[in-house]
Structures are given as structure tokens and as C-alpha cells.
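Write out this protein's structure.
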Amino acid sequence: MNRMRRMLIDVMRQLDEGGIGSFLPDLPGTNESLFPQEQASLTLWKDALTYCSATFNTPQYRASFRGGCLIDDFHNDASGDNKKWRFSPAKGSSLLRTMMRTRIASDKEAGLSTSIAQITEEAGHGQVNLAGNAISPAMFTELQSAEPDSAENIRTAQLENKAQGADVGLPGSPLWLRAEPDEDSILSTAIANDLLSWIEK
């Protein structure tokens, strides 16, 4: 829902000031993409990222955030030895539950009674609308079991109050929990600085 996009652009500008180029692709079915959202899937997104990254010949480092950590294991031979940086990685099932709860709350306001079991059954027969997103049966099924891969060369960052087990804790607030897209300059700077130091090693 683009709640972190404004912050990510700020991070990218700071990376540019530090001499590191970056790109933030619109995945099929998101943002400015003309691809039908209801046909998107995690598998399709990985394929799109493989194709996109192949257009750059320089070594690449992957920085992924929240649900993006579910698709950062795409293949690319010029990816900087597959070094990955992750911020607050989330399981697909957790993201799916959050979207279903949002749908349930919205239905309740409209006078409808909906349950997670009902939504799950609905998703088995066709597209479901969750938190403003058209979710295909394929996407729904993939999200139910999707988890960030556990490959080597991964640096994991979390917010300071959730940093147990992470490589680094960063100051800031969970923008993905806010009702509208927002910014957090403290978090943006902390992320940019950690990325710069990680890439330089």
C-alpha cells in the first residue's frame, strides 16, 4: 500500500549522495504497472526482478523490506555474490492475516459478517479483495507458506525494539502500521548509513 515508498525514496537519495546508485522497480500489478493486479503472484514478481536486474551489468546488492524479503531470492549472476540486506522481514502468512483482518473490519463497518475461514474458502475459488488489493488464488496460496529464504550473506536489520536476533537495530517507527503513507527521516538516515557501511565492507 506504498506506506514505505516515500521513505524508500529518501533512502535512495541518501545512497546517491554516498555514491551508490539504486533502483526501485514497479512490480507487475503494482503502482504504475499496467499488468492486471489480479494476475500477479510471487513467482511472477521473482521472474520480473530477474529480468529487471539483468539489464544492469554492474554488481548488485539487494535491499528488501518487509514482504519484499519474500522475493529477494531471484536469480541474477551479476548480483554481488547474492549479498542481501533485509529490513524487518515478514512471513507471507503474517501479511495475509493482516490483510484479511483489514477486510473483516471493513466488512463489519458495512454491516457484513466475514471470517478468515470464509475468506480462505473464497480465495480457493477465485480472486479476493484484501486491503484494496486484488489477490489471485495463486498469490493467496503462495503467501500462505512463503518465508524469506535463509541463504548466506544476509544482513538483517530491525527496529530497535524488535532487534533481538537481528544484526543491527535501527531507530525509527513502523511506517507500515500507519493509516497513510508517511516519512521518518531518522529511520531513513539510519537505513542509508547502514547500507552504505555494509556495501563498503
